[in-house]
Amino acid sequence: MTEPRGSALGHRLAGRDLTAAPDALNLLESSASADSADRQDLLRATSPAVLGYEPAGHVVGITGPPGAGKSTLISVLVRELRAANRSVAVIAVDPSSKRSGGSLLGDRARIDFDPADKNLLIRSMATGDRLGGLARPTRDAAAALSAAYDVVIVETVGVGQSETEIADIADTVCVVVQPASGDALQFIKSGIMEIPDVLVVTKADLGQIAQRARRDLHSALRSLGATKTSVVAVSSVPPASGITDLIDAVDAHAESVDLATERAGRRRAQALTEFAEEHGRKGMTALGGRRAAVKEVKTLDPTLDVPQMVAELLRRAEA
Amino acid sequence: MSDHRLPKPDRPWMMRTYAGHSTAAKSNELYRGNLAKGQTGLSIAFDLPTQTGYDAGDELARGEVGKVGVPVAHRGDMKVLLDGIPLDQMNTSMTINATAAWLLGLYIVAAEEQGATEDQLQGTTQNDIIKEFLARGTYAFPPAPSMRLIADMVAYTVTNVPKWNPINICSYHLQEAGATPIQEIAFAMSNAIAVLDAVRDRVDESLMPQVFSRISFFVNAGVRFIEEHAKLRAMSILWDELGRERYGVTDDKLRRFRYGVQVNSLGLTEAQPENNVQRIVLETLAVTLGRDARARAIQLPAWNEALGLPRPWDQQWSLRIQQVMAFETDILDYPDIFEGSKVMDGLVAEMLEGSRAEMAVVAEHGGAVEAVPYMKAELVESHRARIRKIETGEMKVVGINDYRETEHSPLTDDSEGGILVVDSAVEAQQTDALVKWRSERDQPAVDAALAEVARVAATPDENIMPATIAAARAGATTGEWSATLRNAFGEYRAPTGVGEAAGSVAGDEELEGLRDEVDRVSEAIGRRIRILVGKPGLDGHSNGAEQIAVRARDAGMDVVYEGIRLTPSQIAASAVQEGVHVIGLSILSGSHRELIPSVIGALKEAGAGDVPVVVGGIIPDQDVPELTAAGVAAVYTPKDYDLTQIISEIVALVAERNGVAQSA
């Protein structure tokens, strides 16, 4: 008997067979109920519970306002990472039209890639009916791909609550801002924006302006007590500059945190959100209310994937 | 003597034909034939590899060598191309942009070999990069170094090649990309400002009046020829104003608005193509009728442009239109016939007002270079609105959306379908000839010359022209010069404009119905229908691909828009990585017979051979069976003007290939 599609794809990813990635993403994006079991199998096969370890791929979120230069930055970032022989998957999210449901996924056109490079994947995603900066399958896709690729870059739409959402799925969050806009500073100060792990000031080719912006942001973050956030100035136009600084800052962040704990925490939070969405007030009441539910979810095996956690919560609620 | 007659008729404008194909030798033969027929200037069409800086044999040049123009790789090619044509007397227009500095270098060297000096040379290099970013797609370098190359050329020619027009600011291609007359005026003027400002930094201030006077324009004229004439009068007023106010040019003569023209190709139809002849004639009136805004040089498209490449006979017909207009009619006998016309004055006033407002918007964006994304999005939107008007019948196009019944046209009866077909052996010949050229030249001299180009490129204060001319003399190739600059400047992908295009207006029932169908099929497949839209090869005319992308989005599909200049393997890799259900490819350069089978081959190799491919563009009827045999699911040509219909057929194709039953 051949192995079911979902777990076969999952095992191939876990074995770092990168050719499985496009099909895996097709499956994760599928909303067909017939694919539901396969989808869960795939996630399970790439979960820490089954692997016995946290997937090694570093999930890096890149967000920031439209026009800040995210795609161009990613283009040079990818080139640099590939030059260092690290495999890279990019998930670029663009908004869907409210009226038609369709989307124009144009980021790919802005990222240079070598078609012969088997260690690089670029995948566009549309937000679909979801508000915000990510698509419904983005979380699952990032989780599954992190079992196969060294680095998984997730580029958000860049409007609304993108940076909050991306913090729920990325190990390291980079917020990209242009030197001239004071928005980032205002947003951080007012608490609208969560403090990113890395703040990237683009257009460093502007010289002094970019350097001043970098210093201003740096001191503002210090005054808010955010001592861990690095501020990096980069230029994506040739000759590109600051890209290795950015990679170093992202790597340094990854080393400074306990990934297993962080990820388990995010999976728990996500499981709770999904449980609440699926089972509503009744489900939450059965768990003893929101506060009790938060405590309950912390007792779950941290290596479980999100659907398993949801299932376990449901079992306890019904018990 | 009377006020309503000229003492003697005006001299006619310069008459050219945009021409070149296959090889330098074949094109030379064509030029000599055209000159013998009474053509008074040359207009060189280069092939896409030459325009974008690749040599024959490069992967990106595949299928494109000698197709839409002549390949010119080195001074040897240029010499053959211009053999027997005295360059000290000829007036030559070269449609060349990203690599303009290089081709001017080759031209100067070819003239030198004939014994002509730089100060004798007359002609024009198109050299307008902003419109390449906006509409035509043959750019090579990022905006800043591209503008520097232009400024270098202007600064060099104004002192060394004083009769040369170093740049033709093009509003032509903006109209082809859908620009309204006001956008055409405003974007072209803003573009000129960006160029002049860049040059001002590189020449002595005292030279600015001279610089200003060397800037010429290349405009378009559509079939609404009265409005089009008003557009040119408005441009001439704005130009005069700009010279006086912004650049302090006090000599009236140096502020004259000088323009050449190629009349509209966008409005030429594939259906009943003989009707294009009267369109071309009427459009020519727009640029000849009023003396105060008459063209200096005219080249006319051929009646069969929407079918494929014109043959010498087709081009002769267009030249004869010009000659009849200039020599048989009384158009050149009178002073300006619109002076005092209420209609003309009113139209010009409207255009001036609209253009000034639009120029202010571009200025607010920081000028034309910074405003490229804005202008691009505006053009895509205007083009969308134009197509919509044709679809709804609000804009009538005879033979397309009205009066479609027709007798059989005998004009397309020959075995090639009434067009020129370039021998596909040309590419291999050119590639081999290049190998031979390289083996016979002084390689250390070439290496040293290119190293000097690289050094100057990295030294922004130095002018690129002397090193470029030296490299041309040493025997370097177009691809080598361009690669040297690509190394120094980096590469660039222009904005696509599609992301910002407005959605369709509500109340389009056909589109509403299509959305329901897209939803139904998507649900059955499990994912929203995904289409990859892109352009293989070097052809940068992306208007059609952009409009398909926007309409597919409006129909509810997820559209991965890849843009221009893609290799078959890039398209295949994208199709696999993106998990698309269908691929739409657009080609207008005539390279479909080579490129489309390559794409399908690459898809099979990448394991995506089952993804259906549809093709759009200028595809002659007789090529369709070959494409179908190669595995193409459907072919669309300019006569398929209803985009919603095209998208609905694509949806049906996706449904069929994925086993989704037809809706009840």
Automatic annotation (TrEMBL), chain A:
Residues 56-265 form the AAA+ ATPase domain. It holds the Pfam family MeaB. InterPro entries: AAA+_ATPase, GTPase_ArgK, P-loop_NTPase. One of its GO terms (cellular component) is cytoplasm. GO terms for molecular function: GTP binding; GTPase activity. Belongs to the SIMIBI class G3E GTPase family. ArgK/MeaB subfamily. This is Unannotated protein. It comes from freshwater metagenome.
TrEMBL record, chain B:
GO terms for molecular function: cobalamin binding; metal ion binding; methylmalonyl-CoA mutase activity. Its cofactor is adenosylcob(III)alamin. CDD domains: MM_CoA_mut_B12_BD (cd02071). The keyword Metal-binding applies. Keywords: Cobalamin, Cobalt, Isomerase, Metal-binding. Pfam families: B12-binding, MM_CoA_mutase. Residues 528-657 form the B12-binding domain. Belongs to the methylmalonyl-CoA mutase family. This is Unannotated protein. It comes from freshwater metagenome.
